[in-house]
Amino acid sequence: MKFARLTTVIFMASISLTACKRNTDAQPNVQSNTKSYDVVFAQCLAPQGNGGNYAATLTWVGEQIHVRIAEAKSLAQKGKRVGIYVGCMLGGSSGSVTAAVLSAILSNKNLLPSKTSQDILSIDEATLIANSMRYVAFSVDLNLHELVRFFGQAFWTQGSNFINQNALKPLISNLFGNDTPHWWKGATVDASKVLVDFAATIHLASTLTPQLVNKTISSAIANAELKAYRERGVRYVHELPEFESLKEIEATTSQSHEELSIGLHKQTQFIGQAADHFVAKQFSLSDYARRHLVDLGPNGGNYKLKKTIDASLATGICTITMAALVRSKEALQNQPMYRNLNPVVFCSKQTIDRILASALYRKHIAEGHPFATRFILAAVPTIRGGIAPSIREPNLMTPLRSRLANDELEVSEFYYPTMDKELNGSFTFTPMNARQVKKGTNEFVPHLGVAGGFPDRRITAWIASYFLVDAVTGHLAAKSAEVRTTLSLLGRANLRSAPAFHKNAVKNVFSASATDGDQNLADWMNFADSFCETMGSHIEKRLNGKIENVTVDWDVTKLPAAQKPGGASKLLVVRTINATRTQTHSSEKNTKLVFDPLIKTERGSRQFQPNPCKEQ
Q1: Residue 566: exposed, middle, or buried by beta-carbon count in 10 A (0-12, 13-18, 19+)?
Q2: pTM for this one?
Q3: How far apart are CA 479 and CA 78, in angstroms?
Q4: Distance CA 490, CA 512 (A)
Q5: 3-state secondary structure of 101
Q6: What's the pLDDT tens digit per position in 90-149?
Q7: pLDDT over 60 (residue 505)
Q8: Which residues contact 21 (CB under 8 A, 6 or more apart)?
Q9: If DSSP codes are grouped into helix, strand and coil, which group holds residue 482?
Q10: How many helical (H) and strand (E) elements, i.e. helices and strands, does the chain have?
């Protein structure tokens, strides 16, 4: 399928000891002249899921890194020793797949032969990572065969309501392994089938080469389109034409517009085909073609795509979903209500250990922060274990309800502050065995009922912020005289009165009544707002960091890893580049817009909400 489309880090003992003793309320030391760097730019990312348009999220990641690269280059030209750190990301829903792609790229030895996700990158290394993210984003689009396969699954399920439900249910079950779920009002799109497409994208990310990423634009387009591209300074296939302003775009002749628009489609088509060929030739004859017939689960054999998602999430890269943690299988027979749901964060064990050791995290938990204590940390050994629970969504995917440590969830250990205090009398910050919890007379097998990866971007950013603070005040401060910290969020504009998928899920899917829904939604919004008061405030005031927020109107549909046919996701890629560059540059002089044939007016393709803590 065209792509509908992390490494255990061992720290030196001296750094670990320093990390245990540090005060997270202190700013990084800016006085030392013995550091390896004068300035390190630390970038952490927290996107809200955006359904089928996750190509736009992939692009946003690359563009955010490019923004840091531009800042680093400016200082390097003044003789400063600069580095860039990008090993911090947490995503939900399709954003979890984006996190897995970044994890795979940072673990790709073709791109970074001697680095890990927790290393400081040079400008050249960070540039290759950013361009690789953009390259993968351009490869994510669907052909007709793939659309037919997905729509067939979705339509047959919904069509069974008015065609012949009794006849179609066995057919769907035989074809896709679906049973009629007790949750989600009959939605039966099989997440395992969508996971195959994500695995292919992640495989591309894990095997990319600099040679593939840095193909020249002349290999993709020619003639008048190539001339138009070269006039805009485009050299490589991962680049797009830039403009100084919207007025400059609108001032171009219709012919130039047409040439650039045609070039855009040829460019993305070239990358899609090249990426397809690159991945396919890594498989034996017919193996890649039959990938949708292969089991990519933990016990699915030795298939190459399975090995891809058997890899670990890189340290600092996590995913998130909403779920109910219960103590028996019977408790999962009924759909959980909002008050039983917690944000569950899936990371490698190394990342979980880092968060649990964080002084700021321990401070908030010990103080009984009403929202910080809601998070459940779950250690998973694989990429699959991180994204499989997160891509589930209400009214679309088959439900995921199972033992915490079984083959579907793959959790090895977990930490839930409320349960820790209940069982031990105080917070021990010690993970619990996911197979069975034993403490005195308490003995039970933890189960999880997954609601979906729909948390607000600010809720998503909570746990990533603890990791970011730990990194900035720990090993980054040990190596650099100054650390410039940025936490970047992505999502649709937060409009209190406007409907949104996550608000609808809270109010209408996980609430028992209209009154209950209103109360739950108010609590949900307080949860999101509290991020600004707690983590956002700490990053800005204690670290002198900044919170950047990019909003895009991506016209989201309910299709996973799919969007409107006809190249709409390609245009969304361009829109996200525009939004990132215009909303994260402080002066008009530095603002560059990427060509977008849909741009007509100032309000045409971007939403501005630079501060995620101020609703509009």
Answers
A1: exposed
A2: 0.87
A3: 20
A4: 31
A5: helix
A6: 999 889 999 999 999 999 999 999 999 999 999 999 999 999 999 999 988 655 555 555
A7: yes
A8: none
A9: strand
A10: 22, 16
Confidence of residue 399 (pLDDT cuts 50, 70, 90): confident
Residues 402-444: tens digit of each pLDDT: 999 998 899 999 999 999 999 999 999 999 999 999 988 889 9
Percent share of the chain, pLDDT over 70: 79
Predicted local confidence at residue 421, as pLDDT:
96
> Is the torsion defined by CA of 367, 372, 376, 378 positive or negative?
negative
Q: Judge contact between 115 and 313, C-beta under 8 A.
A: no
Q: Which two three-digit tokens encode residue 60?
A: 């946003």
Give the span between the Cα atoms of 279 and 331, in whole angstroms. 43
Taking the C-alpha atoms of residue 465 and residue 462, their distance in angstroms, rounded to an integer, is 5
How far apart CA 539 and CA 489 sit, in angstroms, is: 14
Mean pLDDT in residue range 443-447: 95
Tens-place pLDDT, residues 141-172: 655 555 555 555 545 444 433 334 444 444 43
Residue 92, H or E segment: strand 89-92
The tokens describing 319, both together, are: 């995913």
Whether residue 126 contacts residue 65, with contact meaning beta carbons closer than 8 Å, is answered with yes
What are the angstrom distances between the C-alpha of 186 and each of 182, 215, 322, 335?
8, 46, 20, 13
Six-digit token string for 112: 């970074």
Residues 287 and 548: their CA atoms lie apart, in Å, by 43
Render 251-315 in DSSP notation, one character per residue. Answer: HS-HHHHHHHHHHHHHHHHHHHHHHHHHHHTTS-TTTTTTGGGS--STTS-S-HHHHHHHSPPPT
Angle at 394 between CA 391 and CA 400, to 5 degrees: 60
Amino acid at the residue 319? T
Question: What b/e sequence results for 571-581 when a residue is b if at least 16 CB atoms lie within 10 Å of its CB, and e otherwise?
Answer: bbbbbbbbbbb
pLDDT of 21: 36
CA distance 345 to 186: 27
- Which helix (H) or strand (E) segment holds residue 345: the answer is strand 342-347
Alpha carbon distance 264, 225 (integer Å) = 9
Contacts of 278 by beta carbon, 8 Å cutoff, 6+ apart: 204, 207, 208, 212
- The answer to whether 612 and 547 have CB atoms below 8 angstroms apart is yes
Mean pLDDT value across the chain:
83
